[in-house]
Amino acid sequence: MAHKTWNVRVHTAKGPVNLGQVGEDNEELARCAALSKFGIPEDEDTDPNRRGIRFDDEFDVSPA
């Protein structure tokens, strides 16, 4: 399979926020890569202004 670039977007109460990109072969792997790259562990979630994917956040990936 061809390696693709995926845009990562998290959905917040204020609207969607683009976090950046990851590279993977398919959407499932891209979601895993997004969590690895942009995920905020619950025990480190002390700054409400920090951009990333929190435990209960909805997020999506789409081909770039």
* Average pLDDT score: 95
Number of DSSP strand runs: 3
Taking all Cα atoms into account, the compactness measure Rg is 12 Å
Helix content: 10-25%
| Beta content | 35-45%
Determine the structural class based on helices, strands and strand pairing.
alpha+beta
Instruction: Characterize the largest beta sheet: strand count, sense, and whether it forms a barrel.
Output: 3 strands, antiparallel
Strand arrangement within the widest β-sheet reads 2-1-3
Instruction: List low-confidence stretches.
Output: none
Please count the helical segments.
1
In whole angstroms, how far apart are the ends?
16 Å
Count of folded domains: 1
Describe the structure.
Helices cover 19% and strands 39% of the residues. It starts with a strand and ends with a strand. The chain is of the alpha+beta class. The mean pLDDT is 95. It has one domain. The chain is globular. The chain has one helix at residues 27-38; strands spanning 4-12, 15-24, 58-63. It has a 3-stranded antiparallel beta sheet.
